[in-house]
Amino acid sequence: MQRFYPVIIDQEGAVFGATAPDFPGCVSSGASPEEALAGIAEALAGHVTLMAADGDPIPEPSGITAVPADPACVEVCRALVPVTLPGRIQRYNVSLPEDLVAEIDASVGKGHRSRFLASAARAALRADQAADVR
């Protein structure tokens, strides 16, 4: 399932910042509004994935105009960023080389293989999607 969350892009000097009001502390910055927006999209995807893995509730999106303007910031624009919510867990049989499994276990621990593989797959898919946009 996909939800669209509001993001606010502001500017301070030559730096553009992006904040996601529904996720306090989830921020990004860049040399352009586009760079800040791409960064916040990646940050939101990771934030939501970690919240879901921890069992934290994912907030409903606020309306794009529901968040009041901050007079201390120079707001450049607002955008809606699509975020795919993690679905229910399904069990799959995956074949991997022994040495790769050993490396994964050494890095994240034997009990966290599935979470690691899911995170790696999501990161690879986001990288592919970002490459398609450019």
Automatic annotation (TrEMBL):
InterPro entries in UniProt: HicB-like, TA_system_antitoxin, TTHA1013/TTHA0281-like
Cited Pfam families: HicB_lk_antitox (PF15919)
Superkingdom to which the source organism belongs: Bacteria
Domain HicB-like antitoxin of toxin-antitoxin system: 5-121
PANTHER family assigned to the protein according to its UniProt record, in alphabetical order: ANTITOXIN HICB, UPF0150 PROTEIN SSL0259
Protein name: Putative RNase H-like HicB family nuclease
Species of origin: Roseospira goensis
